[in-house]
Design brief:
Elements lengths: L11 E7 L8 E7 L17 H14 L2 E7 L1 H7 L1 H15 L6 E5 L11 E4 L7 H22 L7 H4 L5 H10 L14 H10 L1
Parallel strand pairs: 1-4, 4-5
Antiparallel strand pairs: 1-2, 2-3
Helix pairs in contact: 1-4, 2-3
Amino acid sequence: MLLNCYQNEFLEAGCDEAGRGCLAGPVFAAAVILPPDFIPGELTDSKKLTHKQRCSLRLIIEKEAIAWAVAEVDNLEIDKINILNASFLAMHRAVEKLSIQPQYLSIDGNRFKAYPDIPHTCIIKGDGKYLNIAAASILAKTHRDEFMDNLSGQYPHYQWHQNKGYPTIVHRTAAIEHGLSPYHRKTFTITNPQLDLFLETER
């Protein structure tokens, strides 16, 4: 069973990001402050949930959280500062947007650039341990998926409505055949899926 938050002495926001491993689109991050009596229901690590469950939970989180915010860092910024720094920046932006300033941050993962004047703890697989981080993972994931779904209509050959910008065979093949869109991360390597198949047969 997930705990509500990492510590109970200070008002805490859970933070997580979505889209680090994608070839296209922004990286999104969310920060969420949950009430101490929050009823979790199905809430857990977003990767363990179906799309329908995530969307249902998003509505509950956005309605019942003390405060929540979602922010992004686009592909151009990612190319300038690298994806790790972009992930940190997206979380900083989400914290900045909160309507209530937290006194403590719990961060999913093992690295973070300290936010000014707010202590934090990094928690490996925190989205499977604490509800506020799990809630942040849901919001980051669903808001990013929605963004990529909306973009997909403009660039249908990449099938972003299905892969959300992740490096699937279809996505990589389309990028090689049609070239990169204005939303692709140009510092990310797009390998040829046929090369992957060749390497598999050689092993």
